[in-house]
Amino acid sequence: MSALEKAESTVFVASGMYASVAMLSTLVPAGGHIVTTTDLYRKTRIYMETELPKRGITMTVIRPADMDALQDALDNNNVSLFFTETPTNPFLRCIDIELVSNMCHNKGALLCIDSTFASPINQKALTLGADMVVHSATKYIAGHNDVIGGCISGRDELVSKVRIYHHVVGGVLNPNASYLILRGMKTLHLRVQCQNSTALRMAQFLEEHPKDCTCILSWLAKSPRTSHCQEPNDWLWWCCQL
């Protein structure tokens, strides 16, 4: 996984949700401030809204593409971390990772990307300036709907802190789940390439369909997300609403 993400280190854990909790618990100090987005995984948002305040941690929620709101949050708070999905689930909203990483680092904040919906085949957020990447390995990484797992990748300095928390709290990935994830990763590149191709064909078909249909796909010419989704963020993801 470290090779796929071009990371110094990776730790696998029992679920994607646990990966987010471990990352947040490690990187955001008591009394800190976190910025997140409206499209974040619902259970993660619930955790952040109900559990983090018990540690005196405050939060600002912005729309994924609202860079003015992000800059305002960075200017007016002692932000420890900006945490967001990109592309988001299910609306495929994308952020300019390189721009956001520069904004965060200029204010001393870390950037963590939930890259579950892209997989490391379509996006390598660390190469664009993100400090950490989390995945729900349950989805594309394992790929067979028969295992639950998660992982956290990044600089060894940061992942080592998460690993210490993980060793104390638990959330260990069981041996059979580890085997199933390794099995799935052997075909990850083939599966994602096929999924990309199928998604593009379906979106192109639906885009021209006579019924009222809205297609959200980053590589469609009409997509508002296209500007943030060229090389090296080569996604061909889709979401349609009939």
TrEMBL record:
SUPFAM superfamilies with a match to the protein in the record: PLP-dependent transferases
Cofactor: pyridoxal 5'-phosphate
Example of a GO biological process term: transsulfuration
Keywords of this entry: Membrane, Pyridoxal phosphate, Transmembrane, Transmembrane helix
Cellular component annotations (GO), alphabetically ordered: chloroplast
Transmembrane segments: 12-35
GO MF term set: cystathionine gamma-synthase activity; pyridoxal phosphate binding
InterPro entries: CGS1/2, Cys/Met-Metab_PyrdxlP-dep_enz, Cys_met_metab_PP, PyrdxlP-dep_Trfase, PyrdxlP-dep_Trfase_major
Record-stated family: Belongs to the trans-sulfuration enzymes family.
Protein name stated in the entry: Cystathionine gamma-synthase, chloroplastic
Lineage: Eukaryota, Viridiplantae, Streptophyta, Embryophyta, Tracheophyta
